[in-house]
Amino acid sequence: MEKPSIFSQSYLERRDPKAYDKQWRHLINLCRSYNDPFTYLGGEEKYRKQQKDDFLSGKIENPVLDYPDINIEDIDRREKKLLEIKEYILKKEKREFVRQAYKWRINELVAGFRMLKATASGNMKRFQRYTEYIYGNPSRDIFSYSVEKIRANLENYLDSDNLDLQSAAQNLFDALPKDLPEAKVIHLPGQDVISNAKKIIDEEFSNLFEMPSEKKELDAEDICLIASQIIKDKKAFDWKAILIDGGSGSSLSVDQERKQFKIPKAKTVSPSEFTGTARHEAGRHFFRRIEGDRSRLRLLGIGLDRYDRGEEGVATATEQAAEERMDDFAGLASHLAISLAIGLDGKPRNFRDTYEWMKKYFTFLKVKNGKSFSSAETEARSNAWAICIRTFRGTNCSTPGVCFTKDIVYREGNIETWGILEENPEEAHRFSVGKYDPANMRHLWILDQMAIEDQDLEYLEK
Question: Which of 71, 264, 364, 423 is at 20 to 30 A from 347, Cα to Cα?
Answer without folding.
Answer: 364
